[in-house]
Amino acid sequence: MIVDVAPLLRGEVKRMDIDYMLSPEQMDGISFESDARVVGCITDSAGYMRLCLKAELKYHGECARCLAPVNGVFSLDFERTVVTEDQLTEEQLDELDDEYVLLDGSELDVDLALREELLLGFPSRLLCSEDCEGLCPRCGKPKREGDCGCTFKEIDPRLAILKTFFDNDGEEDNN
Q1: CA distance 40 to 77
Q2: pLDDT, tens digit, 9 for 90 and up, residues 148-173
Q3: Which residues contact 117 (CB under 8 A, 6 or more apart)?
Q4: Rounded to whole angstroms, how far apart are CA atoms 114 and 78?
Q5: What are the helix (H) ranges across the chain?
Q6: Which residues pair with 108 in a beta bridge?
Q7: What are phi and psi of 163, to 5 degrees?
Q8: DSSP β-ladder status, 36-45 and 48-62
Q9: Which residue of 26, 35, 80, 121 has the lowest C-beta tally within 10 Å?
């Protein structure tokens, strides 16, 4: 969304409200129920402009540990200082993504920075619960459904010869 902030720059208003829907970038294994709802405002306080937004995005995916369906709402608070390019030093231009959004004349592209922040802030792995134990490595049954009865005592084949040493029940070979 391109916002014309000319009324703020001229001092006609001190606040401009923003309320729109943003189409998110597609992600592997994630589907979005709808576009992200973005609400917020741009405020002017004695020439210091601040962009404050909140975005909410409903999503569906699979748990990274047990493959159970996961549904949720990702919420992002986004705040940046609105500046023109001539207001920043070279060092500040390098840190542009973290603290500032640039005006192009009197227009502000809200989507550009917000899309990137949504993409970076979205969880890289979805979990059905923080304590999800995943799947049994032997049979594949979800551990949250209870004990599957699989035995996990495996002997490393490289050390299997040592088992025969202990199976002699203490008998010594007197050869």
Answers
A1: 10
A2: 888 777 777 888 788 777 766 555 55
A3: 76, 78
A4: 7
A5: 6-10, 90-94, 96-99, 110-121, 160-166
A6: 3, 103
A7: -65, -40
A8: antiparallel
A9: 26
Residue pair 134/143 in contact (Cβ under 8 Å)? The answer is yes
Q: Measured between alpha carbons, how far is 11 from 48 in angstroms, rounded to an integer?
A: 12
Q: What is the β-pairing status of strands 15-22 and 31-32?
A: unpaired
Q: What percent of the chain has pLDDT over 90?
A: 34
CA atoms 63, 150, 148, 140: torsion sign? positive
Min mean pLDDT across 25-34, 75-84, 163-172 is at 163-172
pLDDT tens digits for range 81-124: 888 777 766 776 666 667 788 888 888 888 887 888 888 889 98
85 in Cβ contact with 26 (< 8 Å): no
Place of tokens 């973005």: 38
Distance CA 16, CA 52 (A): 11
Rounded Cα–Cα distance for residues 59 and 70 (Å): 8
Taking the CA atoms of 1, 116, 23 and 76 in sequence, report the sign of the dihedral they define: negative
For the record, the structure tokens of 131 come out as 């304590």
Answer for the pair 127, 63: CB distance below 8 angstroms, yes or no: yes
For residue 175, what pLDDT is reported? 45
